[in-house]
Automatic annotation (TrEMBL):
The chain crosses the membrane at residues 59-81, 93-113. This is Cytochrome c5. GO terms for molecular function: electron transfer activity; heme binding; iron ion binding. It comes from Halopseudomonas aestusnigri. SUPFAM superfamilies: Cytochrome c. Residues 148-227 form the Cytochrome c domain. Keywords: Electron transport, Heme, Iron, Membrane, Metal-binding, Transmembrane, Transmembrane helix, Transport.
Length: 227
């Protein structure tokens, strides 16, 4: 815009100078331009016009060159801004992708953990073992192992009797209290064995050891009473 204004103004000045030189009716001469004291003096309308045209062309070229340089600088600035915008946009896309991936992974892990917890809670408390299943062989093997030899009194007491007799629940004689055991039937082991087999008061038959033999129960009574 400034260049266009400068061009129009210079062209106007050229026309005005041409009109001025024409009105003065300067005589034509072979030496139309002379130099006095370092200054150029025009003595005709042709040098005047040439001077103005040179002024017009020179300043117009300078103005155009300035605008070209400015446009190049502006273009370089725009290119740099576009590159910076692309870099920033790429960084934002990468950050957003990483955040989305983290959220998806967290949700998948939480869903898996919840499914496992729900499956664990819904799992049946026990399982049914049918004849012919591997578990039936294991149970049979365990029974055969138990039948292979009698359990000791300490084993029976530790597994079936200590829950009540260690603390004397509901008046049960405590383990190691020989006086309390002697007070029952005068310490007669056979009578104590009969009570253990039949059950007494809150104690169920065989004291919850349904598969204990009489010898195993007797060994348990001796272990607890010290008799």
């Amino acid at each position: 815009m400034r260049c266009a204004v400068a061009v129009v103004a210079t062209f106007g000045r050229t026309l005005a100078a041409f009109a001025c030189c024409s009105r003065r009716q300067v005589r034509f001469s072979a030496a139309m331009i002379r130099i006095e004291r370092g200054r150029v003096h025009a003595s005709g309308w042709i040098p005047c016009v040439l001077w103005q045209v040179g002024y017009f062309v020179g300043w117009g070229f300078i103005g155009i060159l300035a605008h070209i340089v400015r446009a190049m600088h502006l273009g370089a600035t725009l290119i740099a801004m576009m590159r910076m915008h692309k870099v920033m946009t790429l960084k934002k896309i990468l950050l957003a992708s990483a955040a989305m991936l983290a959220v998806v992974a967290g949700n998948a892990f939480a869903a898996t953990a919840n499914e496992e917890a729900i499956a664990e809670r819904l799992k049946p408390y026990g399982t049914v073992c049918l004849a012919g299943d591997p578990c039936a062989d294991e149970v049979a093997g365990g029974g055969a192992a138990a039948a292979a030899g009698p359990r000791s009194g300490a084993d029976v007491v530790g597994k079936f009797c200590s829950a009540c007799h260690s603390a004397g629940v509901l008046g049960a004689p405590k383990i190691g209290d020989t006086a309390a055991w002697t007070a029952r039937h005068g310490g007669d082991l056979n009578e104590l064995l009969k009570n253990a087999i039949a059950g007494l008061n809150a104690m169920p038959p065989k004291g919850t050891c349904g598969d204990c033999s009489d010898d195993e129960l007797m060994a348990a009574i001796k272990e607890m009473s010290g008799l």
